[in-house]
Amino acid sequence: MNQKTRSAPPRAMAMLESLRGLGYSTAAALADIIDNSISAGADKVQIDFVWNGPNSRVSVLDNGCGMTDAELEGAMRLGDKNPTDARSPHDLGRFGMGLKTASFSQCRRLTVASVKSGERSCLRWDLDELAANPNSEWLLFEGPAPGSEAHFQPLNGEASGTLVLWENLDRIITEGYNSDNFNDLIDDVESHLAMVFHRLIQGPHARLQLVLNRRPIAPWDPFMSGHPAKPWTSPIAHHKTDYGTIAVQCHVLPHRDKLSNAEPPASE
Ligand SMILES: Nc1ncnc2c1ncn2[C@@H]1O[C@H](COP(=O)(O)OP(=O)(O)OP(=O)(O)O)[C@@H](O)[C@H]1O
Ligand SMILES: [Mg+2]
Q: What angle separates helix 179-196 from helix 26-39, to the nearest 10 degrees?
């Protein structure tokens, strides 16, 4: 039976605006960006929050393998990779969406500059510019927004690495938001990243250094490994799945009476 078909390309603006509602917190969105840096082999990731009222910005700089111009174009495209394709075991990505969905959950302008083999490329999504041209195609701009060039200086002289810049932080900087709120957000982000990446940033031979506004983030282990007041930790059980072996371990955390104020239990 012959079926009639019609092409149904998404409308850029409608699609991008609806992707903004995926419910990321700022900290979870940053964790997605940092996952990409880790997949790119970075051992240092620097996150910077810069308060400047409505022109405040957030950037993530890594020293990973970077991207060529063509790779960067693919990275900025929505769903460039098929989630069912096999990936390298060290690649934390799956859907080909994280960079865009995480960023648009926080900002209206996403600019990514990357250096690979000494060559630099830079591409930008700008939802305000797209909104001003509603019938436009999927417009990716080349280079930083006018006036934002200096924010990419940290990549100067680097052989490889990537800088992700979020500007027009409309989901963060809402009516009445001030620098105190911004500082509270930075604290929030610090504790979340300290927990999510604690295995990678702990120990003298840590695999990763995470730096937030020029201060290294110290790990926070929610399992309180090695704490003398932990009543019980199970042996590690191994479960085979179609996707590899999963190690499972149960932890019972110390009673709160056995903790000092400097050791908040995981539920707090
Ligand atoms: N910091 C980075 N350094 C090098 N390559 C990157 C970086 N960030 C993104 N990329 C490239 O861009 C691609 C798209 O990233 P994106 O986060 O959108 O999707 P993903 O990581 O493939 O999957 P997921 O949606 O699960 O995060 C990545 O697969 C990677 O090839
Ligand atoms: Mg990703």
A: 50
Q: Do residues 225 and 252 touch, judged by C-beta distance below 8 A?
A: no
The answer to whether position 133 is within a domain reads: yes
Is the C-beta atom of 34 inside 6 A of ligand 1? no
162 and 62 Cβ atoms separated by less than 8 Å: yes
**Claim to verify: residue 205 and residue 228 sit in the same structural domain:** no
Ligand 1, atom 6, lies closest to the CA of 36
**pTM summary value:** 0.90
The reply to whether ligand 1 has any atom less than 6 angstroms from the CB of 44 is: no
Atom of ligand 1 nearest to the CA of 94: 26
Nearest CA to ligand 1 atom 14: 75
| Gap from CA of 90 to ligand 2 centroid (Å) | 12
The range of the structural domain enclosing residue 181 comes to 12-216
Same domain for 85 and 115?
yes
The 10s digit of each residue's pLDDT in 106-148 is: 999 999 999 999 899 999 999 998 888 877 666 889 999 999 9
For residues 266 and 173, membership in a common domain is answered with: no
Q: Are residues 64 and 194 in the same domain?
A: yes
Based on the domain organization, do 122 and 229 belong to the same domain?
Answer: no
| Closest ligand, as measured to the CA of 74 | 1
For residue 101, the ligand 1 atom closest to its alpha carbon is 18
User: What span, in angstroms and rounded, lies between the C-alpha atoms of 226 and 268?
Assistant: 20
Which ligand approaches the C-alpha of residue 62 most closely?
A: 1
**Strands, DSSP E only, in 98-198?**
109-116, 119-126, 141-142, 161-167
